[in-house]
Structure formats: C-alpha cells, structure tokens
Design goal:
- 45% of the residues lie in helices and 7% in strands.
- With 473 residues, it is mainly α.
- It has a three-stranded antiparallel sheet, with helices on one face.
- β8 and β9 form a beta hairpin.
- α6 packs across α7 and α9 packs parallel to α11.
Length: 473
C-alpha cells in the first residue's frame, strides 16, 4: 500500500459530503421497499438488498445508518427513522443469546442514540436516555454470558512471543455463534457492548448471585484473541509472519485446550481473511481509547494498565503493519483474502491499484472501510502519546483508504442501486455473493456492514476536520 502523506481530513470533506448526500438516498430507498417479514437486509443482488439467513447481525447497521446520517446532516427525518425502527425492531437483539454480534447491532442503534444525546446533538430526555442505557446494559451482559474457558494459566506477552513474568492470562473468550469451541476475530469489535455496559455500572450476575466484571471479561477475550488469532512472527509464531490474522480459533471443550486455527469465511486457516483482520484493527484501536478513561485500579486484577495497554497496542500495530505492507493493494483496498487460490495471478497487488473487475479474486471494500477507521484511531492514539512518526503513518493510511472508497468505482452513485459502498464480499466459500453476467468473481454489490462503516468513516473524518473527536463510549 502506498500511503498518501499529503491528505488531511479537511481535504476529504468534499468527498465525505458526497457520501452523506448519497447515503440519504440509499437509506430511504431501503426503508421504502424493505419488508420486515423477510428478516434483515444483508447484501445486494443486482442492486437491491436481500436477506441471507445465517445470523441476524446486520439490522443494527440498517437503523444505525439513520442515526449517523442525522449526525452528519441534521436531517430530522433520519433521526425519526432511527428512533422509530430501534424501538420497533431492536429489542430482540438486546436479549439475543445466540450470537456474538451485540456490539454491531446495539452500539450502532442504542449506542448512537445515547451518544447523540450526551453530545447535545438531540434534546436531553431522561426517559429516552434510561431506555437506551438499559438496553446497552442488558446487551453487554448477554454478550458476556457467551463465555468459554481455556486451559491457559500463564501470563503471556506478544513482545517476545513467549510466557512472560507479568501480563495477561488468555484464560477465556466469548464464543461465536458456531458454538463454545469457536473464537472469531470479528468479536473483538463487539467488546464495545461489554465495556460500555461496564461504564454504565453494570455487571453480569452469575450463579449464587456472583457478579461478573464485564470489563475484565472483555480484556480476557481480547488477550485470548491476541494469543491465538493474531500472529507475531516469533516464539510460537516463528513459522509465520507478524500481523497475520486467522478468522477462527478452535478449542477442545473437554479440557479448554487450543487445537488449531480455522476459517469460516476466509480461504484457509493459514491465510488472512481480510475482513477479520479489519475487525482486529478497528476493535483493538477502539479499546485502547476506552482504556484511557478506565481507572488504573480497575485493571489490576487483569495484569495492570501497562500489560493490558501493551498487549492491545502491539496486537493492533502488528495487524496494521501487515495490512499496509503485506497484502493491501496500492490504494488501500484489499482482496477478500491475502492468499486465496488465484491470488498469484494478480501479481504483486501491493504495487497496483485494486481491480474489482478482475477475473481471479474479488476485492472486499467493506474490509477497507472497517480498517480505515481503526487506522485513524490508532494513529490519533499514538500521536497523542508522542509517537508521532508511527501515529502519522497509520493516520495517513486511514485517510488514503477513505480517499479511495469515497469515489468511484467504490462509491455507489447509481440512484437505482440501494447500496452505498460497492464491491464488498460476504461469504466467498459459501458462494453467497452475486456474480454479474460476464464476470467470473463477485463485484458491484454492497452489504449492510460495508455501507454502515463507510458512512461512519465519513462522519468520523468530518468530525476530525472540525476538530471534534468522538468515541463510542
């Protein structure tokens, strides 16, 4: 990837405003035609949103986009839409015990509603704030209840890839919808639900009325994800490259032992499914920001502030460095997997612009949109701590990706197409993505998470241009 060092948030404002203009059209188009009896809109086929029964993890993005659009433009109709549909349709997602997606569904809706009120962007209402915060408390606890333990008992640090004398113990994780044996990289961004519920003073009550600390459970999950889903090129990982991310880790539930890497949506357990890497980049960067508001005493039971921060920071940097240097195209958009079957036919993708219309492997613009926000947040975080060179590298990488996505062929300008961000991929191994006539791989379509994160990225950049930083908490 070639990082553009001359870009600024201000220089991207015109493109960001174009994103808002188009997003309003797309949100209204989906709302006007979508029948809730069909489930949740997931991705487009021939330009129209359709559903795909697997897990209901995208509805929060659908209605969350309305809140983001109101935030960006002040369009009162979008605020009404977000409020009305959140009340009508999101309650089941708050108490959904079968998914690992609470941070996606509920932070995008109830979380955005709360944030807008606390920022003074909408009038304060004690009843509405209590309503949103109760939903967020319950959501965080329900997500935290999807917990499995590992047999790891030794503190570990990624700095040397070996057991450490002090640090975090990767002793548990929040398991995916696949079952208690499965740890997904995706879930790192769903940790937002746990830590926000903790910030609101909530805990998960277990057997015998034992309270379970939601922050500690989130950190435990992040430590396990870093230990088994991210590779550091040394120690146990000396056979692999630093920053590679595996989609899934498998554990033996009889004894909690780690068994092997796996992948549901990537090409293999030994390549990087790029959207999984994007979740890692964005998720750890956001958690680092949250740690700054956590009193140090609350971290003592999980290794202390230094150990937690060092782990999160090294994990985020490793994944970011591999994204930039290892597999992303010159313009910052990755293909769906770092080394899928026909990747070699594309040549050295790091030195060429991504080609969404190539005949060999599809790109995934949704991974780029997710990662871009993580790059910006990590860059801002490091710069604020005096690491200006590294901070600038990551921050400019985020702007470079946004500059690519906020233009054609990725930005959807066709009024007949309901998607906002084109050329995303959902599940390549399952063959769910639409392949247009005359093409050999999926292209030209959108997905709900890609649209949401593209809009969120545009909003974030517009806030940066105005000197108004914001976080999910």
């Amino acid at each position: 990837m070639k990082v553009d060092t001359k870009l600024t948030p201000q220089k991207l404002l015109k493109k960001a405003n174009r994103v808002f203009e188009l997003a309003g059209q797309k949100i209204r188009a989906v709302d006007a035609t979508w029948d809730s009896a069909r489930g949740t809109p997931v991705f487009t086929v021939k330009g129209r949103y359709t559903s795909r029964g697997w897990t209901e993890w995208t509805q929060g993005f659908q209605f969350g986009m309305a809140f983001l659009q109101y935030d960006a433009t002040g369009d009162q109709s979008m605020l009404r839409l977000g409020r009305e549909k959140t009340v009508r349709y999101m309650a089941s997602h708050v108490s959904h015990v079968g998914v690992h997606d609470h941070g996606f569904n509920n932070i995008s809706t109830y979380g955005n509603l709360r944030r807008l009120m606390l920022e003074g962007r909408i009038p304060h209402s004690a009843d509405e704030l209590n309503f949103a915060e109760l939903a967020l408390k319950v959501s965080g606890a329900v997500q935290a209840a999807r917990h499995a333990t590992t047999n790891c008992r030794t503190p570990w640090s990624p700095v040397d890839g070996a057991p450490a004398t002090s640090g975090l113990v990767p002793s548990g994780y929040l398991y995916s919808f696949n079952g208690p044996h499965s740890l997904f990289s995706d879930t790192i961004r769903s940790l937002r639900s746990l830590v926000l519920a903790h910030r609101l003073g909530h805990s998960l009550m277990g057997e015998g009325d034992k309270p379970i600390n939601l922050l500690h459970r989130a950190i435990e999950h992040a430590a396990t994800t870093a230990r088994f889903n991210v590779f550091f090129g040394q120690g146990r990982d000396s056979y692999d490259v630093r920053g590679r991310v595996v989609h899934e880790s498998i554990f033996n539930r009889n004894d909690g032992q780690f068994r092997c890497p796996s992948s549901q949506q990537g090409y293999s357990p030994f390549t990087t499914w790029t959207r999984g890497a994007a979740w890692v980049i964005c998720g750890y960067a956001e958690q680092l920001e949250y740690l700054d508001v956590v009193p140090g005493a609350e971290l003592d039971a999980v290794g202390g502030r230094g150990a937690v921060t060092d782990l999160f920071l090294e994990t985020a940097r490793a994944a970011c460095d591999y994204y930039i240097d290892g597999y992303s195209s010159k313009d910052g958009v990755p293909y769906w997997d770092s080394a899928a079957l026909n990747s070699h036919r594309l040549g050295d993708v790091t030195k060429k612009l991504a080609d969404p219309f190539n005949p060999w492997e599809p790109v995934d613009s949704s991974a780029a949109a997710i990662a871009a926000q993580g790059f910006l947040r990590l860059g801002h975080y490091l710069t604020a701590r005096g690491e200006k060179v590294a901070g600038r590298k990551y921050f400019q990488a985020g702007l470079t990706i946004a500059n690519t996505l906020f233009d054609e062929p990725y930005l959807s300008t066709d009024a007949k197409h309901q998607g906002l961000l084109l050329h995303s991929v959902y599940h390549r191994p399952n063959g769910w993505d639409y392949v247009p006539p005359g093409q050999k791989v999926p292209c030209g379509e959108s997905c709900m998470w890609g649209d949401y994160h593209a809009l969120e990225l545009a909003l974030f950049i517009s806030r940066l241009a105005a000197g108004k930083y914001y976080t999910f908490f």
